[in-house]
Automatic annotation (TrEMBL):
Residues given in the record as a divalent metal cation binding sites: 8-9, 39, 96
Domain of life: Archaea
Catalysis: reaction(s): a ribonucleoside 5'-phosphate + H2O = a ribonucleoside + phosphate
Protein name as catalogued: 5'-nucleotidase SurE
Cofactor note: Binds 1 divalent metal cation per subunit.
Subcellular location: Cytoplasm
GO function terms (MF aspect): 5'-nucleotidase activity; metal ion binding; nucleotide binding
GO (cellular component) term, any one: cytoplasm
SUPFAM superfamilies xref list: SurE-like
Protein keywords: Cytoplasm, Hydrolase, Metal-binding, Nucleotide-binding
Entry cofactors: a divalent metal cation
Family according to the record: Belongs to the SurE nucleotidase family.
Amino acid sequence: MHILLTNDDGIESPGLTAAYEHLTPTLEVTVVAPAGDQSGVGRSRSDLSYERADEITIDDHEWGYVVDGTPADCVAVGLRHIPEAEAIDLVVSGANNGPNVGSYILGHSGTVGAAVEAAFLGTPAVAVSGYDHETYFPEDGDNSFDAIGAATRDLLALIEDTAVFDGEIDYLNVNAPATGSDTLAVTKPLADYDTRVVDNDGETSVFESNYWATHPVEGDGFPIGLDTYADDYPAWSDRAAIVDGEISVTPLGTPQSVVDPPADFVAALDRYPLEEA
């Protein structure tokens, strides 16, 4: 199996290094990663943003390539431009420095955004993120990314000969504890989210958002420790799994779900255009 490895923390990230070192002994790996930190950019592409020039630079790297662009840019380059593109079987994005759990966060994550971009381009993907119970960010803790890289390797070995991507599943969102785990749970993301905009100093305003809790959180700032709100999480959720020390594996599909509209909505639109008064 040939892996396209990318991330949103940049080519120098220890999470990317751990993934590369654990995957290369058994798999062929080509890295296409951002030149710098691209955290929180979601699925932004340089050709679809007014704030980014419609051009990128691609430089050689000992592991593959470095792209002066977003994670989604890297996936597009890896699947549509480089000589290895036709051989890629799976995209792995990560390992991210910090968890990506809950539906709202998934839409903002550059790690997950790379996986979604891969799905739109017809290649399955696995997004991998790490969580440290003590420091939140694995990069700040003593355990770092070794166990997360090992969990990524083992998960790929488990699913390689399965039909996981033969149906409606396009990518997996994986969150792993930095301390390691002997337990894996298939989960779903919570869809809860709320935010408030409050006065800061009379001149600016700030956001107070419940990224991790299922109720409003005031004044705690970001990041908010997941363990603090452990009692809020249903057992089936991605948050509950990693708080309990499990590896969370969330199967997801793309594109966005199509929903059948109610009859009164359709009937209302049938009256268009409205008669002039």
